[in-house]
Amino acid sequence: MRIKLTSIMVDDQNRALKFYTEVLGFQKKRDIPVGEYKWLTVVSPEGPGDLELVLEPNANPAGKAFQKAMFEQGIPLAALETSDLKAEFARLKALGVTFTQGPTKRGPVTIAVLSDTCGNLLQLYQPG
Amino acid sequence: MVLTRDVLARLCRARDLLCEEHAPSVGEVAKHVDISPFHFIRQFEAVFGVTPRQFRIGSRIQRARRLLVVSTLSVTDVCMEVGFSSLGSFSDTFVRRVGTRPSEYRRRARAMIQDPGRVPHALEPGCLSLMALLPESGFAISEKRE
Predict the structure, then answer these.
(1) CA-CA distance, B139 to B135, in Å (whole number)?
(2) May I ask the CATH architecture of the domain A5-127?
(3) 42-71 in A: which are within 8 Å (CB) of B?
(4) How much is the ipTM here?
(5) Cα A71 to chain center, whole Å?
(6) Which fold has domain B53-119?
């Protein structure tokens, strides 16, 4: 058994693809039409290339309620690691990304929280 | 931009107001959450990826989709119910956002209904269930195990 796919629900798959590739810097891996939605995944150029993040259509009312509640409480739905949070924060801010928390030391990590413009908060973290 | 917790909460409240059946105007919503219209539109778009007006239209179309599937209202009644004042404008917006005319959407969606009164699962997929609908070739490029 392997951990191969993880997912995040997004309000709009086209907008999500743009944000996750052009802003965050991930690479599109699969884009397969399925009915009125798509099976859409991205991978990190820093690897591993076989660990895919599915950008799931947030079409199910239960998913919407969950996503909304987490967002309103300021709780991120995914955490992304970086080796230089300060530089990443500056780069993303320059691209117009909105943060709800700037780089902050929290225990063993430094974290920042941003909006993915598709209904989620994402936590960036740098260990150490 | 780094938003405070308070501003984020106000933007979330604004999003709720814009989803309401008889949503107030964007200006009224801005006033309600006590943010100037200029900053409200800018901050809302920065956080949610669309302007408040686009969000409200999206919310109406979303409601229309559901009504077209589960209700017996005519397309005109659905149009009025979700807050459009003109059928032409409703149909054009629906086509732009959904890719098909409301009547065609209703016809196709209803053909999928298995449980009367409920939206077909294929229209409201959840939690990776789309995977089951992929063609056989969907994972053909999947990496070979080493």
Answers:
(1) 8
(2) Roll (3.10)
(3) 49-50, 54, 56-57, 59-63, 71
(4) 0.89
(5) 13
(6) Arc Repressor Mutant, subunit A (1.10.10)
Examine residue A48 and say whether the peptide bond preceding it is cis (omega within 30 degrees of 0): yes
Residues B1, A117: C-beta atoms closer than 8 Å? no
Chain B CB within 8 Å of residue A7 CB? yes
This prediction's pTM: 0.89
Closest C-alpha to B135, from A30, A69, A62 = A30
Question: Which residue do the tokens 């739905």 mark?
Answer: A77
Written as tens digits, the pLDDT of chain B (146 aa) is: 899 999 999 999 999 999 988 888 999 999 999 999 999 999 999 999 999 999 999 999 999 999 998 899 999 999 999 999 899 999 999 999 998 999 999 998 888 877 777 777 777 777 678 888 888 877 765 554 43
Per domain, the residue ranges of chain A are: 5-127
Q: Which spans in B5-137 are helix H?
A: 5-19, 26-32, 37-48, 52-70, 75-81, 87-98, 102-112
